[in-house]
Amino acid sequence: MCGIIGYIGPRNVVSLVVDGLRRLEYRGYDSAGISYFLEGELQLKRSVGKLSSLEAILPPTPSDGVAGIGHTRWATHGKPTEDNAHPHRAGSLVMVHNGIIENYLSLKKKLEADGRVFASDTDSEVIIHLIDSAYQAGHSLEASVRLAVLKMEGSYAFCVLSEDAPETLIAVRSGCPLVVGIGEDEFFVASDIPAFLSHTRKVIYLEDGEIVQFSKKGFEISDFKGSRLEKEEHQISWDPVMAEKGGYRHFMLKEIHEQPRAIVDTIRGHVAQEAGEVLLSGAEQIGDLMENCQRMILIGCGTSWHAALVGKFLLEEIAKIPVEVDIASEFRYRDPHLGSGDWVVGVSQSGETADTLAAIKEAKGKNVPTLAICNVVGSSLSRETDAVFYTHAGPEISVASTKAFTTQLTALVLLAIYLGRKRGHLSEAEGKDLIHQLLLLPKKIKAVLKREDRVAEVAKRFFRYRDFLYLGRGVLYPVALEGALKLKEISYIHAEGYPAGEMKHGPIALIDENMPVVVLALKDKVYEKMISNVMEVKARGGIVIAFAEEGDTELAPLVDEICFIPKVVAALSPVLMCIPLQLLAYHIAVFRGSDVDQPRNLAKSVTVE
Ligand code: AGP
Asked: Could you tell me how many helices (H) and strands (E) the chain has, helices first?
């Protein structure tokens, strides 16, 4: 977590770095800081809280230009105080860091024994002291950085500036994301592309174990041993406007409304409607790798794990492949049994989630083929896996994931159809029909979005309640989990998702007039059972908010509130059903006055385990 940025070039360093930090703030917002040159001296400005607090203390004086670094923090080691805010300083050097230095305590002990005084409680500060120790001993800045990284264990990306070399910026990657942006006579390096997307779309993805040294004229990339590397440049297709709010009050609302477009983009090029088949276009390796697949293991965290749970239903139902689903952070520590015929699929919006990456590495270590379902081109996950199926949600800025989830579900439907057809479990007619339904989905989502006011009315009635229960069955059970997660992360209301059939095994004890129960009910094979669950809640004085399909006249009189979605086939119902739940969480959070896009304690990319 944490966002870092470095800039070198002729323009106003302070405003460029602050602007970049604004676009990285989703990665953490416990404190922010910046360092830049003024009259030849490195200035250090840091502030607790969001970037706006930092901006308030930045002087109107322009910097010297040339170089600057910035940081937005998600606290791991040390409270969110000014002393713990980055950049950290040692001698004439300043540094910003994203990641965790796992052996920082032993390093700190040694450095303190050498007489070094620490100003913060962070693990990060050891980095700059290590570099400065070598620098003071007469090594060049680059050599000092190389010597320091040899001693460090953990995951990190950091940028360093020296007061003695105002035209040099050094950045290092090992386990945390870092991308170089190449502009006209100017260069950027940042944790994520949106930080500089409005200035350049030409990028180089750094790999673990790489160091980049910038000057005003250019840059050189080398490995930790000092061997120079030639790296490929990539052109980013994301439009800078995609990373703006575009008139919406929050990124989350904008991203909810972008879902019809995001799904169209994810499907584009992947369907041969006449043949009832899915094309792998751009992900052809999947075809070869899947030949011997006997079992799939889907892994992910948070919302991506929920997508994986839906994926199990889709792949087992449509492609008849046995599927297991694991939370990425659990997978790796339970010594999973993996062998020939297994296939591990990492689902991740960012492609930088440390737990998901670690799980994929675990699978690779056991020689199991790996696939990523991922939104960020060039992310660590996409480079770590044997094949990638990209979702095309575009940049997702709000911490609460919305369009990333529905595009993941879309990708999983496409994968299920592809495999169903290849394995002979889905006929041409069935394939055609499912693809036809999939192509109708964006229009149906638009219809749900048009009913936003109705969901907002429900939100207005219930936003003061403290606990919610979400119930779903079958493929809608993961959607209940996702609805509950959306509510808790942005409104801080306690919410739990349950498979409705489990209610009588415990949660029913909680039912009373103070805990609204959100029921997801479609006219499917478990509809009658769901009606029974509703009756059980009502019999205990509970409140039911139902989300059901148009024309359901049976459920309406039984519940307190009902919102409708268009009719949809079971396989695609999670996509449609999660939209009103996203809107419900959003409007409840707005009524409660929460910070919707940047909820407390959270960060968009969880790059620490
Ligand atoms: C969802 O709203 C959260 N932001 C979170 O659960 C997220 O889905 C999780 O951290 C996984 O992120 P990833 O998809 O980038 O791997």
From this structure: 18, 27
- Strand 271-272 with 234-235, pairing: unpaired
Q: What is the DSSP letter of 175?
A: B
Under 8 Å between Cβ of 381 and 374: yes
**301 CA to middle of ligand 1, Å?**
6
Report the C-alpha dihedral over residues 503, 508, 512, 514, rounded to 10 degrees.
-50
- Spacing, Cα 304 to ligand 1 middle (Å): 6
Dihedral, 413, 418, 424, 427 alpha carbons, nearest 10: 70
H or E stretch covering 78: none
Residue 346 Cβ contacting ligand 1 at under 6 Å: no
> Which ligand 1 atom sits closest to the C-alpha of 381?
16
Q: How far is CA 500 from the centre of its chain?
A: 29
Tell which atom from ligand 1 comes closest to the C-alpha of 400: 2
Instruction: Identify whether the C-beta of residue 566 lies closer than 8 Å to the C-beta of residue 467.
Output: no
Q: Ligand 1 pocket test: which of 1, 299, 304, 399 has the largest number of ligand atoms within 8 Å of its C-beta?
A: 304
Could you give the CA distance from residue 493 to residue 589 in angstroms, rounded to a whole number? 9
Q: Which of 108, 403, 444, 604 is catalytic?
A: 604
**Residue 109 φ/ψ, nearest 5 degrees:** -55, -45
Report the alpha-carbon distance of residue 494 to residue 515 in Å, rounded: 10
Q: Using the Cα atoms of residue 489, residue 490, residue 496 and residue 498 in order, give the sign of their dihedral.
A: negative
**CB of 544 closer than 6 angstroms to any ligand 1 atom:** no
Measured from the CB, is residue 31 less than 6 Å from ligand 1? Answer: no
Protein residue with its CA nearest to atom 16 in ligand 1: 348
| Measured distance CA(28)–CA(176) in Å, rounded | 14
Ligand 1 mean position, distance from CA 414 (Å): 21
Which residue of 252, 329, 331, 349 sits with most ligand 1 atoms within 8 Å of its CB, as the best mutation to test the pocket? 349
In tens, the pLDDT along 21-75 reads: 998 888 877 899 999 998 889 999 999 998 989 999 987 766 677 899 999 998 7
Q: Which residue has the tokens 């059970």?
A: 477
Asked about 2 being catalytic, the answer comes back as yes
408 ligand 1 Cβ < 6 A: no
- 529 assigned to active site: no
Which of 138, 142, 162, 168 minimizes the C-alpha distance to 225? Answer: 142
Can you tell me which atom of ligand 1 is nearest the CA of 602?
4
Per-residue pLDDT reduced to its tens digit, 521-535:
999 888 999 999 999
Question: Among 99, 114, 93, 109, which residue's Cα sits nearest to residue 35?
Answer: 93
210-214 and 219-223 strand pairing: antiparallel
* Token pair belonging to 568: 């949809």
Residue type, 133: S
Kindly provide the residue ranges of all beta strands, DSSP E only, lying in 273-414, ordered along the sequence.
Answer: 277-278, 295-300, 323-327, 342-348, 370-374, 387-390
The answer to whether residues 71 and 80 touch, using CB atoms and an 8 Å cutoff, is no
- With a cut of 70, say whether residue 406 has pLDDT above it: yes
User: Residue 367's pLDDT band (boundaries 50, 70, 90)?
Assistant: very high
Whether the pLDDT of residue 283 is over 90: the answer is no
